[in-house]
């Protein structure tokens, strides 16, 4: 009896087609559940980055306005790298760089002192956010 059981266990060396199909179906179900969650995570992450970038841009604009006594500033934006090209007095605390991939008309950000809708950041994955000249979030779409 023991010899017969051992030979049956040794004879089985591969998975059956049914076992493989069950594993494939289970993997498909897991992937189908994960894809929407990943998309939602990416959108939430893009929104968080946009809000942070808007606040940083507003803070830099306030510093620029205080130093130069100007009432508006237009900065160039490189969507491939996120680099901000600006007047010398426009300095962001941790480097003149924001996240890449924003969709902005003319790749420019114009911030006007003391306005309700100073500038808008748009991202294909995160929507659109409008900030005051101080970097306060005033509207999202």
Word description of this protein:
It is a single chain. The chain is an alpha+beta fold. 44% of the residues lie in helices and 19% in strands. The chain is built from 2 helices and 6 strands. The protein has helices at residues 2-11, 17-68; strands at 72-77, 84-85, 108-112, 119-123, 127-131, 137-140. It starts with a helix and ends with a strand.
Distance between the termini: 73 Å
Q: Approximately what portion of the residues adopt beta-strand conformation?
A: 15-25%
Q: Unreliable stretches, pLDDT < 50, 5 or more residues?
A: none
How many beta-strand elements?
6
Could you estimate the helical fraction of the residues in percent? 40-55%
Task: Spell out the helices and strands N to C.
Answer: HHEEEEEE
Evaluate the radius of gyration.
27 Å
- How many separate structural domains? 1
Largest sheet: 3 strands, antiparallel
Helical segment tally? 2
Shape: elongated
Question: In order across it, which strands form the biggest sheet?
Answer: 2-1-3
What is the average of the pLDDT values? 87
The secondary structure category is alpha+beta
Provide keyphrases for this structure.
141 residues, alpha+beta, 3-stranded antiparallel β-sheet, 44% helix, 19% strand
Summarize the structure.
With 141 residues, the protein is an alpha+beta fold. Helices cover 44% and strands 19% of the residues.
Helix and strand topology:
Elements: H1 2-11, H2 17-68, E1 72-77, E2 84-85, E3 108-112, E4 119-123, E5 127-131, E6 137-140
Antiparallel strand pairs: 1-2, 1-3, 4-5, 5-6
């Amino acid at each position: 009896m023991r010899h017969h059981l051992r030979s049956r266990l040794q004879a089985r060396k591969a998975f059956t087609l049914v076992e493989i199909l069950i594993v494939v179906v289970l993997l498909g179900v897991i992937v189908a559940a994960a894809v929407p969650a990943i998309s939602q995570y990416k959108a939430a992450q893009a929104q968080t980055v946009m809000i942070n970038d808007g606040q940083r841009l507003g803070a830099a604009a306030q510093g620029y306005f205080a130093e130069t006594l100007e009432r508006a500033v237009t900065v160039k934006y490189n969507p491939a790298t996120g680099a901000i090209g600006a007047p010398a007095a426009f300095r962001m605390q941790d480097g003149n760089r924001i996240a890449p991939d924003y969709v902005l008309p003319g790749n420019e950000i114009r911030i006007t002192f003391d306005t309700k809708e100073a500038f808008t950041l748009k991202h294909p994955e995160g929507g659109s956010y409008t900030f005051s000249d101080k970097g306060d979030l005033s509207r999202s779409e």
